[in-house]
């Protein structure tokens, strides 16, 4: 276990190399290079955040983040392959081919006098609009979100520094916000999403005080730009723990903030197909990620919004007196417009989603040359997967249809011709009757 000696001159607990399991071999070589170079130039530099947390848990880190007392401009002078990014948080990105090492300057405390200046800005609701006050490592630690994300690793002596009790929480399996949860969620409501994301990803408990304000403060997510919420939604649902995360998002009333167009249907008539398809597509996505298969957010969202679109189509038919096909197109536009105001699904994805949805209708009509044309459609495979998922949920005629398409796509070209001929015959017979 770890030694918990308080450092005599500072506020942290130091864990020497022989008392933790982090070895240099597990750390990205590029991150080590950046740390060395900063140290050599006389700056303090540490690995921090998710990478340290994950290494301590024996998991493979997604990326390696560094924090330092060098300012972004000073960092830029040291590294040729450096780009400064971000407005809300100014950061240096050091580029090594595909790998980017993110280097952030220690964040400082927010002095209210300083707020409303160019360095730091707060909205009326207490939200931080800009956070570019630099400070010491102690201040940096308490500006971070969770105790388990505020652990620092130094290359000088390979020791760990724990400023906020992160090691104990890691051992207890607790997600705990640093500071007053109300204030921290108000400063940045996305932290509520991060709470449930880490609870699901790390299979940890949310500490009681950290959990308590979420349901009440969830509506603050309305103040977050739609583009940022889209990025967060992918981290929540498409990184391998989507199903567990979804359950928590619902429990904490966060799901309804992210997906208003879906939530309306949940509350209106408790559509059980809707719940089932969301659970199914998330379980499938988790399974694919666990098996290193590719996943596409367009498919995930196509499944999410299928039943809301059908529901909206029926409403539009009744209220607007439109034909089903026209009402369907109107419904796609309406549902996406409502959704994208809150969570900006990019156009390149909504256009694929539209193709997948329209193919659901087209796949019902297979006579003549139609089935062959559908099979050639680049979105056929995704559309078939959605059809199959709907069939497993709705049962009935859809099961027959999905079975037919399953056979049709995998059989020989000769057999396909026979399959369609059979269909044409039954079609004519029905027509005569
Ligand atoms: P992962 O990358 O595995 O999703 P992470 O903890 O590295 O998890 P990042 O989004 O990469 O998450 O952020 C890196 C670090 O920056 C975090 O560990 C945390 O210390 C800090 N951080 C990120 N977002 C916030 C936030 N909204 N408020 C406060 N600190 C944050
Ligand atoms: Mg990270």
Give an account of the 3D structure.
There is one protein chain. By secondary structure, the protein is α+β, with helices and mostly antiparallel strands. Helices cover 55% and strands 11% of the residues. The strands form three sheets. The protein has a nine-stranded mixed β-sheet. α19 runs antiparallel to α20. The chain starts with a strand and ends with a helix. Bound molecules: adenosine-5'-triphosphate and magnesium ion.
Proportion in helices: 40-55%
**N-to-C span:** 80 Å
> Beta fraction of the residues?
5-15%
Would you count the extended β strands for me? 13
The biggest sheet, with number of strands, parallel, antiparallel or mixed sense and barrel status, is:
9 strands, mixed
- Number of helices, where a helix is a run of at least 4 consecutive DSSP H or I residues: 21
Runs in which pLDDT lies below 50 for 5 or more consecutive residues are none
- Average of the residue pLDDT scores: 91
State the secondary-structure class: alpha+beta
CA-based shape: elongated
Rg to the nearest angstrom?
A: 26 Å
Which ions and ligands are bound to the chains? adenosine-5'-triphosphate, magnesium ion
Name some characteristics of this structure.
single chain; 433 residues; alpha+beta; nine-stranded mixed sheet; two-stranded antiparallel sheet; 13 strands; elongated; binds adenosine-5'-triphosphate; binds magnesium ion
């Amino acid at each position: 276990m770890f030694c918990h000696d308080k450092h005599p001159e500072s506020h942290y607990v130091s864990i020497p190399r022989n008392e933790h399991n982090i070895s240099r071999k597990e750390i990205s070589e590029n991150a080590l290079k950046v740390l060395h170079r900063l140290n050599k130039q006389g700056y303090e530099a540490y690995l921090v955040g998710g990478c340290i947390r994950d290494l301590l848990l024996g998991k493979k880190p997604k990326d390696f983040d560094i924090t330092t007392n060098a300012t972004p401009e000073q960092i830029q002078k040291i590294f040729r392959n450096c780009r400064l990014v971000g407005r809300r948080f100014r950061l240096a990105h050091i580029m090594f081919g595909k790998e980017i090492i993110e280097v952030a300057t220690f964040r400082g405390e927010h002095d209210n006098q300083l707020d409303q200046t160019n360095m730091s800005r707060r909205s009326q609701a207490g939200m931080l609009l800009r956070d570019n006050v630099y400070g010491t490592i102690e201040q940096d630690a308490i500006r971070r979100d969770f105790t388990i994300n505020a652990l620092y690793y130094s290359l000088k002596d390979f020791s760990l520094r724990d400023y906020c009790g992160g090691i104990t929480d890691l051992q207890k399996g607790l997600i705990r916000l640093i500071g007053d949860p109300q204030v921290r969620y108000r400063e940045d409501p996305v932290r509520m999403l991060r709470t449930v994301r880490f609870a699901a990803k790390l299979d940890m408990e949310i500490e009681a005080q950290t959990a308590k304000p979420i349901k009440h403060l969830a509506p603050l997510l309305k103040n977050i730009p739609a583009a940022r919420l889209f990025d967060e939604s992918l981290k929540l649902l498409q990184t391998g723990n989507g199903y567990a995360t979804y359950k928590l998002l619902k429990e904490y009333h966060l799901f309804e903030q992210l997906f208003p167009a879906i939530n309306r249907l949940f509350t209106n008539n408790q559509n059980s197909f809707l719940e089932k398809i969301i659970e199914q597509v998330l379980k499938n996505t988790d399974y694919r990620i666990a098996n290193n298969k590719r996943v596409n957010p367009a498919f995930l969202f196509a499944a999410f919004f299928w039943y809301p679109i059908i529901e909206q189509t029926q409403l539009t038919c009744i209220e607007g007196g439109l034909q089903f096909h026209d009402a369907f197109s109107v419904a796609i536009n309406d549902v996406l417009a409502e959704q994208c105001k809150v969570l900006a699904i990019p156009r390149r994805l909504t256009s694929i989603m539209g193709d997948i949805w329209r193919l659901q209708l087209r796949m019902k009509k297979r006579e003549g040359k139609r089935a062959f044309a559908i099979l050639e459609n680049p979105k056929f495979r995704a559309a078939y997967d959605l059809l199959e998922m709907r069939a497993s949920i709705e049962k009935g005629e859809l099961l027959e249809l999905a079975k037919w398409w399953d056979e049709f796509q995998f059989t020989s070209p000769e057999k396909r011709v026979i399959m369609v001929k059979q269909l044409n015959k039954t079609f004519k017979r029905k027509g005569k009757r």
